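Most newcomers find our protein records easier to grasp once they have seen one. A learned vocabulary of local backbone shapes supplies the integers on the structure line. An example says more than a description, so a record of this kind follows:
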Amino acid sequence: MKRPYSESCEQNKFAILDVIQAFLQPGIEVLEIGSGTAQHAIFFAENHPRIYWQTSDRAAYIEGIQSWLDFAGLTNLASPIVLDVCAQWPDNTYDLVFTANSLHIMGEQAAEQCIRGAAKILKPGGNLIVYGPFNYDGRFTSESNCRFEQWLKQQNPESGIKDFEWLNEIATIAGLTLRDDIAMPANNRVLIWQSETLPAK
């Protein structure tokens, strides 16, 4: 099959790696939610060969992800697993959960389940890293994000750019603490939450 391709992944992968590479310590296990074309997974795994990266997505995208993984031939990239954030989650736990350009595609229920589900499968002290556009104080951060929202609604009325404050409240209730909120190119952000660590014995 022809491998799926995302121009935005090619454009933002360097900037994202600059921010997250401090978290990609040797030996960690990463779950990516919504791997899409797998271009991010391959780029990050190539640059950090001592991490273990688990791709995932809904069933319709699995074949495309696998075609990229077969092409890349990296030993630290696992075959994709089917993951619907509103359904069954993996039994495994992970040091890091990463997702990019996914929450604005989801409806509110799915976005909430994504945050809550990620919190449950993080190891103590693990991190949830989310990349994408977000609103603050109920407002768009740019005119381009406003236009993007209109386009999203045309594709799916339930989708849309989520409010940072709403997401952070969900994360806090789920036991996550906001560690950083980083401005990125093209009016995007990287949000980093950390799970609670085990109490000292």
